Amino acid sequence: MDEIVIEGGVPLRGEIAVSGSKNAVLPLMVAGLLTDEKLVLRGTPRLADTRTLAKVLGELGAAVEEFGDGPGEGVSVQATDLVSTRAPYEWVSKMRASFWVLGPLLARAHQAQVSLPGGCAIGTRPVDLYLNGLEAMGADIVVEGGYVNATAKGGLKAARVDFPFVSVGATHVLMMAACLAKGTSVITNAASEPEVVDVGTCLQAMGAKIDGLGTRTLTIDGVARLSGADHTVTRDRIEAGAFALAVAATHGDVTLTGIDENLLGALAPAMRLAGAELSETGTGLHVKGPRGRAIATPVTTEPYPGFATDLQAPFMGLMCCADGVSRIRETIFENRFMHVQELARLGADISLEGDTAIVTGVEKLFGAPVMATDLRASVTLVIAGLMAEGQTRIARVYHLDRGYERIEEKLSAVGAKIWRESQ
Ligand code: EPZ
Questions:
Q1: 157 among the known binding-site residues?
Q2: Separation between Cα atoms, residue 106 and residue 286, nearest integer Å
């Protein structure tokens, strides 16, 4: 298994191109199942997760093809015929977003057998919101033997779905299902994350009638069929955020190309409070680290436009060496602090009180062998390794490969001493 090795202490300088968004491209590829025509997605990242999903879609009957290179790269999905409506456990357990095929399969083929995803490292992650929403749209659902068996004889019918709280995945799935349901659906407490807006925009280009993207209420007039489309994927705000934090953590000076400050959302003001400078250059976002130690800054994760849970761990990486005590509260997932133990191995001083991590900044971190536990925890260890004195060796980097495209290449190009070793 590969390991990432980092010799820390080098300020990052130069330019990094931000990739297309993982959390947009996955539901966009799933949306390709809604039509028999070709869906072309441009600017997509090449990741372990997109390859896993390509296999899942292929088994259902879609032709998934990667094309181009570098900035011209993309992927197309063409599901002329659905040859299967079953997504087995071995796929869904590998990657949770595979569960989302439930929506398009039910909307287009009027039936689906999709494995329950089960819990995962960051929390229990139930699927009640998906199932209640689809039942409201007329689906008969039986959960048996670890599978969701769903049928919608005669097709899905429009419904009003009031989510009790915000769920990104349930919003994706219900929005896709409502596009082909008969009548007008209203979804309240919908997610307004940029990735949901991106998927909704692509669905509109496919002929869907969706109102309210980017707000908490979506109104969707079902149509009889959707067509293909040619869509460019939004840039990855979580990758961009991790790079911005790595620059701040190393007192570096880097322009993140292809994005503006808006993409960082609530991270931008938090980074300014922490002492980093951010300015737009016309081609991207210039990030300059604080002159001395970062300033301890509290954050609380919330649905968009609040501080993203996917940036909680990377932000904690920066706070490890901040001047003062920062309180970092996680309200989305109940077990998203696995990075704390690993950061402690590098010398961080962090204690947990319920849903809050209390980070007492130390002057320095020191390199050590550590282990990645999930996707965002692993990039946090990269940030911490870049800050630390000496060598950090990160095991289980397959977590990192799920969501960060060529990360060691991108960071080496801005001066980091980072490389991959195959064990
Ligand atoms: C998406 O997961 C993202 N995944 C996550 O990113 C991200 O952390 C999360 O949204 C929140 O922003 C992808 O886009 C592929 P949720 P999702 O449903 O949709 C609870 C990463 O690192 N819930 O918004 O699965 C759930 O347990 C990943 O890239 C229910 O209780 O998240 C959680 O506590 C990790 N019942 C909360 O809602 C349900 O039926 C929000 O989860 C559905 C969700």
A1: no
A2: 45
Contact residues of ligand 1, CB 6 A cut-off: 23, 26, 96-97, 123, 125-130, 167-170, 309-310, 332-333, 375-376, 403
Whether 22-231 and 2-19+235-422 are alike in CATH topology: the answer is yes
Going by their DSSP bridges, the two strands 160-162 and 184-188 should be labelled as parallel
> Residue 155 contacts by C-beta under 8 Å, 6 or more apart in sequence?
107, 110, 138, 180, 181, 182
How far does residue 97's CA lie from ligand 1's centre (Å)? Answer: 10
Write down the CATH number for the domain with range 22-231.
3.65.10.10
- Six-digit token string for 135: 């039942």
11 is in an annotated binding site: no
Q: Which of 52, 167, 355 to mutate to test the pocket of ligand 1 (most atoms within 8 A of CB)?
A: 167
Q: Taking the domains of the chain in order of start, what are their residue ranges? A: 2-19+235-422, 22-231
User: Are 116 and 148 a contacting pair, CB within 8 Å?
Assistant: yes
Residue 202 catalytic?
Answer: no
| Full pLDDT tens readout for the chain, 423 residues | 899 999 999 999 999 999 999 999 999 999 999 999 999 999 999 999 999 999 999 999 999 999 998 778 999 999 999 999 999 999 898 899 999 999 999 999 999 999 998 667 877 789 999 999 999 999 999 999 999 999 999 999 999 999 999 999 999 999 999 999 999 999 999 999 999 999 999 999 999 999 999 999 999 999 999 999 999 999 999 999 999 999 999 999 999 999 999 999 999 999 999 999 999 999 999 999 999 999 999 999 999 999 999 999 999 999 999 999 999 999 999 989 999 999 999 999 999 999 999 999 999 999 999 999 999 999 999 999 999 999 999 999 999 999 999 999 999 999 999 999 997
Separation between Cα atoms, residue 31 and residue 100, nearest integer Å = 9
Gap from CA of 168 to ligand 1 centroid (Å): 6
User: According to the annotation, is 126 in a ligand binding site?
Assistant: yes
Catalytically annotated residue among 120, 179, 320, 321: 120
Q: What is the largest CA-CA distance in the chain?
A: 65
Asked: is 2-19+235-422 a CATH 3.40.190.10 domain? The reply is no
| Residue 343 in tokens | 């950061």
Nearest CA to ligand 1 atom 4: 23
Find, among 194, 196, 193, 153, the residue nearest to 176 by Cα.
196
Q: Which of 122, 125, 189, 380 to mutate to test the pocket of ligand 1 (most atoms within 8 A of CB)?
A: 125
